[in-house]
Structures are given as C-alpha cells and as structure tokens.
Design a protein that fits this description.
- β1 and β2 form a beta hairpin.
- The radius of gyration is 24 Å and the shape is elongated.
- By secondary structure, the chain is α+β, with helices and mostly antiparallel strands.
- It is built from 14 helices and 7 strands.
- α2 packs antiparallel against α8 and α9 crosses α11.
- Strands 1, 2, 3, 4, 5, 6 and 7 form a 7-stranded mixed sheet that branches.
- It starts with a helix and ends with a helix.
- Helices cover 42% and strands 14% of the residues.
- The chain folds into 2 domains: 215 residues, Endonuclease III, domain 1; 123 residues, Nucleoside Triphosphate Pyrophosphohydrolase (Alpha-Beta Complex), CATH 3.90.79.10.
- The protein binds a DNA duplex (11 and 11 nucleotides) through α2, α3, α6, α8 and α9.
Length: 352
DNA sequence: AAAACGTGGGC
DNA sequence: TGCCCAAGTTT
C-alpha cells in the first residue's frame, strides 16, 4: 500500500472538510495545549463551552501558573479525569519557572511536562511548531486499523508502535499538523466507530476493511474485565444552616474535589451500619443515622455505584479530617462554590 | 503491562 | 437498561 499517497489524500481532503473549531483559530501552543487536554476522552461538543470559560479565566500560561487548584477544579467540574486539571497547573508552573514561560518545541522536551504523553507531544510539536511528528489518537488507530485490516487488538503497546509506524509513512512532510488533524477529523466525521460513512471517504478505494465489506469489524479490541457494582452510603450532617463536607485527597478518584462523607457498604452490613462505621473511620465521631433522603445511580470508568444518602447528626464530639484533606461546615447556599463530582453535586443541589 | 481515572450521549 | 464510546496519561 502506498502510505505516502494516502497521507497526501488525507491532507488534501482536510483542506475542504476541516471542522471550524475555536482552538484552530491560532497556533498559540497554550491554546492548543488546553484544547488537547480537554479533548482527551471527551467529545468536541462537550469541550467547547468549557474551553471558552477557561480561556476567559486563564488566557495564558502566566495566569494559569498563578491559579489555585480549587479555582481550576471549579472550572473543570463536569469534564472528568480531574488529574488533567491538576496537571495543567503543575505544567504551567514548570514552564514559567524552568522554560521562561515558553513551551519547548520538541517531542522529547514536551513529554517531560506533567500530563503530556506521546499523543500530546506529537500534537503540539506538529500543530503549534510545524514539526514532522505524528499524533496518534483513538481516531488514528481506528482509521489505520481499517485501512490495513489490522487483525490484532489495538489496545496494546505493540499495536500502537506498529500503527504509529504506518502513520509515520503516511505523514506529509511540511504539513504534519494538518495531516494529524485530518486523520482525526476523518475518524470523527467519516470513519466513525458505528455506521461509518464510507461512501464519503476519500480513502475508500484503498481501505481493506471497506473493500472486504466489514469496516465496523475493525479495530479489534481486547475484551474488558467485568465492571463491579458497589453500594455506597453518604451522610448529610446538618447543624443549623450548615452542612459538613470533606475534600478528597489529591490523588485518586475525584482528587481535590469535595464530597459528603461516606463510603462503600461491606458484605453483611446494613446501610445505616455502614454509614456509622464510615463516619467513625473518616471523622472520628459516632453518627446517629436519621432518614434516607435520596439515592443515585452512577457509572464511573471502572465501576458502578448506587449511593444512598441519609441525614444524620453527631451527638457528641467534634469531627476531624482523619482520611480527607480537610473538612468544612458550609452554608447550603455556598455549596455551589466547592468543586464536586457528579453524584455529590446532585446531592448538594437537592439540598438547595 | 494492566488498571485506574469521569462524564454524557447514542443505541 | 446496560454497554460502548469520546483528540490519553500515569503508575
């Protein structure tokens, strides 16, 4: 297969079919960086309003480097994968302190920044700096897997190297940025996971999967492990107009976000019993469990939960942050100002 | 190297 | 409803 010709066809196609997206208006590496981080595992339509708010709040590297974690998480709330937001601030600080406020322009240096991996480094080097580097994402994997009928699972290190090797042969020297964005736009608009629009594809006469009549059979993915389901309890502890929330530790799930205290129900426990145990472990006080005021189902990436929410009161003693970063008593009306994950935000809004 | 890491939309 | 999927990175 003539990969060089295919790359040229893609880049040509992009000239007349590229999407008009806010972050494509300039070559400012900062603007491209923010968009690329937001777009990780996230749809374009979801990102657009977040991107606008972000740029209004943090228009450049310097403003971001001075931002507080809470302020950044608040803007990020709802986008998920919150380590992305924390890493943005870290990287901005590194760039201001060690790179004179300028992005490096090589893949090698870019990859040293927190939150910048293989894909992002290639994207920045090619799109912002015109370097001849590939940026291989999920779209590229799918497009190329179909093109060559790649028969092994694509979610392995080896496959990414092999497909990256093919992509490198396709790359159009001098316009790698357009080439990389072309393959992403093709994957997003034409070569979609379900119901690809092969009739409109500039590559269909060369695509092995299409010629075999089964584009949807590719890419092949290894079967995932089953997703567990947990029952979780949470406490709304009110004193007067205030309610107790805690800030989750910076690492791990929903790191740095606030929540209503609680945790997983263990085997053999009833709901109130589990909640009393969790509050004792987390806050060092006993809890009188009152009424169930709601329940929520939610799916994280690798497990599902049903969260049962109870009101409760602390008969004696002062709660302490034994497992959280911090605890705080806040007015119901102030809850919106504390970044939270989806379930806790639903709970906080139900209280208002 | 496999698992962790969010959320919303489509079917 | 439940599962798949979306411009990946980190440990």
């Amino acid at each position: 297969m003539n990969f060089s010709q295919i790359g040229w066809l893609l880049t040509q196609w992009y000239q007349s079919h590229s999407r008009d997206l806010p972050w494509r208006a300039s070559k400012d590496p900062y603007r491209i960086w923010i968009s690329e981080v937001m777009l990780q595992q996230t749809r374009v339509e979801t990102v657009i309003p977040y991107y606008a708010r972000w740029m209004a709040a943090f228009p450049d590297l310097e403003s971001l480097s001075k931002a507080g974690e809470q302020e950044v998480l608040q803007l990020w709330e709802g986008l998920g994968y919150y380590s992305r937001a924390r890493n943005l601030v870290k990287a901005a600080c590194v760039l201001m302190a060690e790179y004179q406020g300028k992005f490096p322009d090589t893949v090698r240096e870019l990859k040293k920044l927190p939150g910048v991996g293989e894909y992002m480094a290639g994207a920045l080097a090619s799109i912002a700096y015109g370097r001849d580097e590939i940026a291989l994402d999920g779209n590229g994997l799918r497009v190329i897997a179909r093109l060559v009928e790649y028969s092994a699972p694509i979610n392995t290190q080896i496959s990414k190297q092999e497909i990256g090797g093919i992509m490198r042969q396709m790359l159009t020297p001098g316009s790698a940025g357009d080439f990389n964005q072309a393959i992403m736009d093709l994957g997003s608009l034409i070569c979609t996971p379900k119901n690809p629009l092969c009739a409109n594809c500039p590559l269909h006469s060369k695509c092995r999967a299409f010629l075999q009549g089964k584009p949807e059979a590719y890419p092949i993915k290894a079967r995932k492990t089953p997703i567990p389901h947990y029952v979780v309890v949470a406490a709304v502890i009110r004193v007067g107009n205030k309610v107790l929330i805690d800030k989750r530790k910076a690492d791990g799930l929903l790191g740095g976000l606030w929540e209503f205290p609680g945790g997983k129900v263990e085997a053999g426990e009833d709901l109130p019993g589990a909640l009393k145990r969790e509050i004792l472990e987390e806050l060092g006080v006993s809890l009188i469990v009152e009424d169930e005021i709601g329940h929520y189902k939610h799916a994280y990436t690798h497990y599902r939960v049903t969260v049962h929410v109870f009101t409760g009161r602390i008969p004696q003693g002062e709660p302490r942050a034994l497992e959280a970063d911090e605890i705080r008593w806040v007015e119901i009306s102030e809850l919106e100002g504390f970044p939270m994950g989806k379930v806790d935000r639903l709970i906080s809004r139900a209280l208002a």
